[in-house]
Structures are given as structure tokens and as C-alpha cells.
Design goal:
Peroxisomal Thiolase, Chain A, domain 1, about 20% strand, single chain, EC 2.3.1.9, globular, alpha+beta, 12 strands
């Protein structure tokens, strides 16, 4: 038995051959009435059509999700018309869940467990069930739970802007620097929208213009307007609604195939999975988790440095985090989020990491620039003080 398991086939490399997402919508906004399967199934169908894969070829659905409960990956697979024989699993590492799902799909293929995997992340905060902590006594008022607890002592986790505030104070990142970063993120996103960069990436669920762009994008704030916004933590706080990201609904899905399937399809342009890491950090450094993950990734790859990277997609929980990330790793501003980031489009929690991979696919595959290095990184932090980073190569 042991010998037969040891001889299980390995698929070699894994390839992302299609990557799409919904427009991101404010909570209670664009996707307010869509259950998670209605939000995601059309994106799965679009990815299958774009890749030329038959639904019957799918071996596994792997979905990142934090708010729904149960196994929404199975519901989505069935709603998308995948065969009942296709297995499904939902993973939860908070904001990193979607990236984790994609990495898990790549590894399943590389170990020979699957040939075709549909993976990504989705969050329908607008329709997610409410969760209530069980009262300790009959007379205690029930407590509604927003996100999963990440602290053993308190049962709660520091808000993202509190963690970023600690980071900004420690690294002396000024309010002006953060507002300037946020302004540049808006300018980049608006320029990308004008160039129709997101066409082919976003699946309009109703086929209208409103659903073809992120709901919070298109704003054109001035620096004065950003400066006028009050901080979350007065009087000395530097983080505001203008230089941080807000929670949004949305989904992002990719199709991953084995080397054999990729060759049968004619070797279409793709992202090849190279490596990924995750890294926990000590309490008080939660906002620094993406940097620590990147340093770990660099250490795993002999001779690798920032000059080898053509693109970095970072989930902008806050401008403070993005500034610290870029400066600590010596990354040029135009290398990180060239089409804007989550400060503009919003943070769809479990879908956030999958959105980053879709962005890599758009920039490095759909709109490939042969003058730039063909390596791209998706990186983000997750509630609880965990950083995740994944490296892909455009083929």
C-alpha cells in the first residue's frame, strides 16, 4: 500500500489559463440581493468558456470564503452546472482565503490529485448570515460577531486600521504620505478605467455598464478632500476612510490545469505557479505580515530579488501598510498596483487574494509587456497577523 501511494503520478507544473472576477460592490450596494452562488456561478461559467474547458473536465472546486458558513464551494459548483462528481471544498484564512484556494488548487494539480481545478474566493457580506455568540448566562445580551476571533485572550481581533495605525506610528509614516498614496491609487485606477484595462477581467452579471466597473471606483478625490477627512482614531490618528479600504462584496475565479491539459489546449498564454509562503507575526505587527511573507519568499528562492519582478499586486488594506511594504522591500511605486488597489475598489475579504491573481493575469497575460520581467507576486495580510505571498510566471 505504501509503495503504491509513493508511486502516485505527479503532474509537473500547474497553469492558470483563465481568470475573471465580478465588479466589486459596496456592502448593501451592487450585489446586495445576490446569494453567494448567484454571485459566483456566472464567473465560473465565464472562466470555463474563456478557457475552452468543458464543465465535465473539472475535478475540484476550491473556494475561499469567510462569512457564509457551510461549504459554499459545493453550492457554487452545482449552480454553475459542474458535474456532481466534481468535488468541492471551502477554505478560510480570512482575507488570504482566495489566494490560499488558488495555491491549493495548483498544488493539487502538481501532486497529480487533479487535472482541472476551479479556484478562487468569494464574499457576499450583504447576504451572509448573522452570527451570534452564545450568551454565558440566560440574562446576557447576545453579541453579534462580525469577523472570526483571532485573539485567544479577548475573543476579538484588532481592527485593521488599528494595526496599520501602530505600523504608521512605528515607521513614522505621515498622514500626508498616506493621503498621497491614496490619491495615486485613485489616479492609477481612473487611468486604467479610461484605457479599458478591466474589459475581459470583469464579468458584468447583468450585462450593463454599472456591473462592468467596481462600484467604489471612478471617484476623483483631490488631496484637499482626502486631507479634510477625520481620522478613525483621533486626535493623533493618521488613518481615515480615504486612505484605507472598505469591505465589499465580490468574487474572483481562475481555471487551473495540469501540464498535460495545457498542452492539449495548445499551450495558451498562462500564469505558471512557482511558489508561495505564509508567515505569522507577533502581536503588534499584524499590518507588517505581508512584508514578512515577502521576505520569507525571497529567502526560499536562491538569488531572487526585487529586480526579477515585473509586477506586484498587494491588497491595500491601508496606505500605511502599502507604503511600508514598498519601502521595506525596495519596490518602485509603479511596480506595485499599477492600476490602483483596494483603497479604490474595496476589500472583498476572502476574495481579496483571488482578485490579486486575476489582476496579475490581466497585466501579465492579457496585456503582456515583453519588456518587463515575467514574474509577478500577489501578497496580502490576513486578520490574526498572517501574511501570504505567491509567485507566478507568465508563460
Amino acid at each position: 500500500m505504501v509503495g503504491s501511494l509513493a508511486n502516485m503520478p505527479s503532474s509537473g507544473h500547474s497553469y492558470i489559463i483563465s481568470a475573471k472576477r465580478t465588479a466589486l460592490g459596496r456592502v448593501g450596494g451592487l450585489h446586495r440581493s445576490r446569494r453567494i452562488e448567484a454571485l459566483v456561478a456566472p464567473v465560473v461559467a465565464a472562466v470555463l468558456e474563456d478557457s475552452g474547458l468543458e464543465a465535465a473536465a473539472v475535478d475540484e472546486v476550491i473556494l475561499g470564503n469567510t462569512m457564509q458558513g457551510g461549504n459554499p464551494a459545493r453550492l457554487i459548483g452545482l449552480a454553475a452546472g459542474l458535474p456532481e462528481t466534481a468535488s468541492a471544498i471551502t477554505v478560510d484564512r480570512q482575507c488570504a482565503s482566495g489566494l490560499d484556494a488558488i495555491v491549493a488548487g495548483c498544488r493539487a494539480i502538481e501532486t497529480g490529485e487533479a487535472e482541472v481545478v476551479i479556484a478562487g474566493g468569494a464574499e457576499s457580506i450583504s447576504t451572509a448570515p448573522w452570527r451570534i455568540a452564545k450568551p454565558k448566562s440566560l440574562y446576557q445580551t447576545p453579541h453579534f460577531i462580525g469577523l472570526e476571533a483571532a485573539s485567544e485572550e479577548t475573543g476579538e481581533d484588532a481592527q485593521l486600521f488599528e494595526a496599520s495605525e501602530v505600523l504608521s506610528q512605528r515607521l513614522n509614516i505621515s498622514r500626508d504620505q498616506q493621503d498621497q498614496w491614496a490619491l495615486r491609487s485613485h489616479l492609477k485606477a481612473n487611468a486604467a478605467q479610461d484605457k479599458r484595462t478591466f474589459v475581459g477581467e470583469i464579468v458584468p452579471l447583468r450585462g450593463n455598464a454599472e456591473e462592468a466597473r467596481d462600484q467604489s471606483a471612478g471617484v476623483d478625490p483631490s488631496l484637499d478632500e482626502l486631507t479634510a477627512l477625520p481620522p478613525f482614531l483621533p486626535p493623533t490618528g493618521t488613518l481615515t476612510p480615504g486612505n484605507t479600504s472598505a469591505m465589499h462584496d465580490g468574487a474572483a475565479i481562475v481555471a487551473i490545469v495540469s501540464e498535460a491539459v495545457w498542452q492539449k489546449l495548445g499551450k495558451p498564454p498562462a500564469l505558471r505557479f512557482v511558489a508561495s509562503v505564509s508567515q505569522g507575526v507577533v502581536h503588534g505587527n499584524e499590518a507588517g505580515a505581508p512584508m514578512e511573507a515577502m521576505k520569507k519568499l525571497y529567502g526560499r528562492l536562491e538569488g531572487f530579488n526585487s529586480k526579477d519582478i515585473g509586477l506586484v499586486e498587494l491588497n491595500e488594506n491601508s496606505a500605511a501598510q502599502a507604503i511600508a511594504f514598498s519601502s521595506s522591500l525596495g519596490l518602485e511605486d509603479d511596480l506595485v498596483n499599477p492600476d490602483g488597489g483596494a483603497i479604490v475598489r474595496g476589500n472583498p475579504l476572502a476574495a481579496a487574494g483571488a482578485v490579486l491573481v486575476v489582476r496579475l493575469f490581466t497585466r501579465m497575460v492579457r496585456q503582456r509587456d515583453d519588456k518587463k520581467p515575467n514574474l509577478g507576486i500577489a501578497a496580502l495580510g490576513a486578520i490574526g497577523g498572517i501574511g501570504v505571498a505567491a509567485l507566478f510566471e507568465a508563460i
